[in-house]
Write a structure and sequence with these properties.
This protein has helices at residues 3-8, 28-45, 69-84, 116-124, 140-159, 162-171, 177-185, 189-198, 201-222, and strands at residues 12-19, 50-58, 61-66, 90-99, 113-114, 132-135. The protein is of the alpha+beta class. Mean pLDDT is 92; it is low at 1-6.
């Protein structure tokens, strides 16, 4: 089988995640509510790209199938930002799979296929401090490069103060520009720029842009670009 044909055997992308430090929280009820709300919101927002909805499989873990790596990365970012804005930490794994059993369109369980267990193994490797892991078969070099960029993203996020995190998460989807955002946040434009620079916002956005472009490129190779 040629490398191209090997790539073409994959059918979906899988998104997996689990909460970090959930056993240490002071209010499990609040965490449970935020977690469920974040997963439900993701399923609604990405309903046209999700083929088997994000499903909480254990108390603090979830998984789901979507149409492509690019879609999966969007879901990862959405869940991450939604939870992080509420002070909830989470780690993820994104991989390609070849589903070998019937697709379950209601819940992401009771399915088997190539790539599911390996993606799960990458999520379960908690000795690795990287919060974003990937399973990209036949692309070992690309996988290492993507995870190196993702590790840099993890380190950048971990260095934020609470205020920097608030400003970054508000800045990413902002359509009104920094002037409008500063007014919305009740701070000066100068202060906004200062906090963004301290949080390395432009560097952070550039890192995500690299991974997004790479996922789009890989989707074409894996035959997941529609």
């Amino acid at each position: 089988m040629s490398e191209k044909d090997s790539h073409r055997q994959y059918t979906h992308a899988v998104v997996m995640g689990d909460l970090v430090g959930s056993e240490k929280v002071s209010s499990p009820t609040r965490l449970h509510s935020l977690f469920n709300a974040g997963i439900e919101s993701s399923n609604q927002t990405y309903r046209d790209l999700i083929v088997s909805p994000l499903t909480i499989t254990l108390g603090d873990e979830f998984q789901g199938l979507c149409t492509s790596l690019q879609a999966g990365l969007g879901i990862v970012r959405f869940v991450r930002e939604r939870l992080l804005s509420n002070g909830v930490d989470c780690r993820f794994a994104l991989g390609v799979v070849k589903l070998e059993t019937k697709l379950n369109p209601d819940h992401a369980w009771n399915m088997m296929g190539l790539g599911l267990s390996t993606t799960r193994e990458r999520l379960s490797d908690k000795r690795n401090v990287n919060l974003y892991r990937f399973y990209l078969p036949d692309e070992d070099v690309v996988q290492r490069l993507v995870e190196a960029v993702a590790l840099s993203i993890s380190v950048t996020e971990a260095a934020w103060t609470d205020r920097q995190r608030e400003i970054v998460l508000a800045s990413i989807p902002a359509e009104q520009g920094n002037t409008g955002l500063a007014q919305q946040l009740g701070i000066s434009v100068r202060t906004l720029y200062k906090i963004q620079n301290a949080a390395r916002l432009e560097f952070y956005k550039a890192q995500w842009s690299v991974i997004e472009s790479t996922m789009a490129h890989l989707d074409r190779g894996y035959g997941l670009d529609g």
